[in-house]
Amino acid sequence: MLEINNLHVEVNATGILKGIDLTVKAGEVHAIMGPNGSGKSTLANAVAGRPGYDVTEGDILFEGESILGWIPDQRARAGLFLAMQYPVELPGVRNRQFLKAALDALREERGEDELSAREFDTLYRKRVAEIGMSEDLSRRNVNEGFSGGEKKRNEILQMAVLEPRLALLDETDSGLDIDALRTVADGVNSYRSPDNAMLLVTHYQRILDYVTPDYVHVLVDGRIIRSGGKDLALELEEKGYDWIVQEAAVVRSG
Amino acid sequence: MTSKTSTYDLYAKQFDRLPSTGPEWLSAFRQRGIDSFSMLGFPTSRKDNERWKYTNLGPLANAAFGYAERPGTVDAGLLKALAPSSDDWVQLVFVDGHYAPEHSTNGHAGNGVVVGRIGDTDGLSLNGVGERLGSLASLESDGFTALNTAFATDGAVVKVSPGGSAPTVQLVYVTTEHGEAIATHPRALVIAGEGSECTVVESYVGVGESTYFTNSVSEIILEDGAQVEHYRLMMDSPNAFHIGSTPVRMAEDSTFNSLSFARGGRVARNGLHVMLDAPGSKCVVGGLYFTYGTQHIDNHIVIDHLKPQTGSDLYFKGILDDRSRAVFSGGVIVHPNAQKSEAYQKDQNLLLSEGARINTKPMLEIYADDIQATHGATAGAVADEAIFYMRSRGIDENTARDLLVHGFAKEIIDRVSLEPLREYLDGLFADGLPGAGAKHSEGGKSRG
């Protein structure tokens, strides 16, 4: 589904990613872990096509096609979704209205008819209930006056309504209390299916108590220095990042 | 050409040709208007330049506007589209400066409310109109008011008796497409008696892209405890000149809530002057202006806090695209006597193009020491992160921008309590900035 080859990315002319190789197949959940500043969020944003994240080398293939030349909304309409680390407030834009516009765009791309207002409301209310979001929040302007947890919950709601093929979750778990974390994890788990895939960018092992990844990758200084199964996350939790960083340094200099 | 003399001659000739109908006081009133205009002319960059600093009146002073002997035709469907209304509203319609009885509910009287015409005061209990007309709009203030007065053969009067509660009254001024550019001088007087309530909508609309000059004056008088809700819609043609002046005087414990919506014109001016003339009087004044192309809108708001415990709250928003230009000038003056007053104002602008320009000048002049006041202004582009957020959900860039523009406008539109009006305004912004849609509809959804 997603194939990243030798990806180099610069932000403000500073090299952040220095050669990433990663393959994600349908049905898989990959966790990208690493210390602060390692380039985890850059990876998620570069895949989503955020302006300012310049790919200087390598390629990103989605469903076998290079998407480097695709504008962000085109990537989204093709089935990519980025749950943001810092969801943005949209003054005056209602949550429902926003999601309807997004779903309309996705359906149009697939050659499907727009949902009627009533059909959309049925879907929307169902998803709101599943996520456990209050009806009141869902009627408000997008993320305006939402707490940190509510914003992250809203990201999961959007994912549940838009049903992307590949979801990139950029530190969706950080800053959450245990209840919000559970909600987010439940949303992720119920979304998981053999047809779609997920890239879970996280600093902490905590969310992996609730979401079991198929693969864990450790990203340090713009490179994946180790990949493994879910046990790798537990090892990191126990020992921290230092040992693995030092080990990698030894390997590289040797 | 020496614009003052020739401009005066042009309007003086039109004045002389007008039939002298109506009560005697009205003829005398109008004569004072033309006399005053002969001395003042239009403001120029040399004289009175502070109040007109950012609005060049040269093209207006140099243009020769005719007088429409007969009104053009407007069918009911078009009228409803231009100025939405509800069946239970009372409506007076003027087409090209002429009263249009077929569209109006003139002579409405009931519940202590009289809606009538300035030139037709006999049959209605409109005594006192002669004394009140012109009591707020000073002939000395500028040539526009003087010129309007000279042509005040007709106009609207809304008079609510003490304790009365009026239905919503809409005053519609339509300018149709003419062979030559015409000038109209709409005049209105609203008197809200002691403890009365009323809602007045002023709709100024132009048909098509016609060139015309609307020179309007609306005086609003609030007596003790009166509550007036006021809307002013300036939906002019992009080629229109519109100079509007609304002086308001407020008595004890009265409240004035006013909202304006203006899309600008060749030159458009939304002038409002509120005199908080008694303790406990409070006004809330909002506005939304939205321009594209080379349109121009000048919001000139003056609030005089003349007495203690008065309140003013100004909140304006502007959306500007292309090479359009807007001015917000909020002059709030707290006079020495106006202790324990509150004065707030803000102006926020969304600039959609690098060529658009806003001159925003929120000013507070405070001569009392025990008051609360804030003022501020902002101007900025649409936030990139908001656009990216929406695009990351599949919404194309233009639609994202339109949604944000609509959202920005909504904050003002949602304050409209009249449903037909709110729906109409909300509909205008459904695809972003009204009028700018043609340019934005191309591209955007293609696979780049």
Output the keywords.
heterodimer, A: 254 residues, alpha/beta, Rossmann fold, 6-stranded mixed sheet, 4-stranded antiparallel sheet, 9 helices, 10 strands, globular, B: 448 residues, 11-stranded mixed sheet, 10-stranded mixed sheet, 21 strands, disordered C terminus
Strand content of chain B: 35-45%
- Largest interface by residue count? A-B, 34 and 27 residues
| 3D shape of chain A | globular
Mean pLDDT of chain B: 90
The tally of beta strands of chain B, per DSSP, is: 21
Query: Strand order within the widest sheet of chain A?
Result: 6-7-8-3-9-10
CATH architecture of chain A: 3-Layer(aba) Sandwich
- Rg of chain B, alpha carbons: 22 Å
Largest sheet of chain B: 11 strands, mixed
Structural class of chain A: alpha/beta
Radius of gyration of chain A: 18 Å
Question: Which percent range fits the helix content of chain A?
Answer: 25-40%
pLDDT < 50 runs, ≥5 residues of chain B: 438-448
CATH class of chain A: Alpha Beta
| Main sheet characteristics of chain A | 6 strands, mixed
The stretches of 5 or more residues of chain A where confidence is low (pLDDT under 50) are: none
Shape, principal axes of CA atoms of chain B: globular
Q: Mean pLDDT of chain A, nearest integer?
A: 90
Question: How far do the termini of chain B sit from each other?
Answer: 55 Å
For this structure, what is the CATH homologous superfamily of chain A? P-loop containing nucleotide triphosphate hydrolases
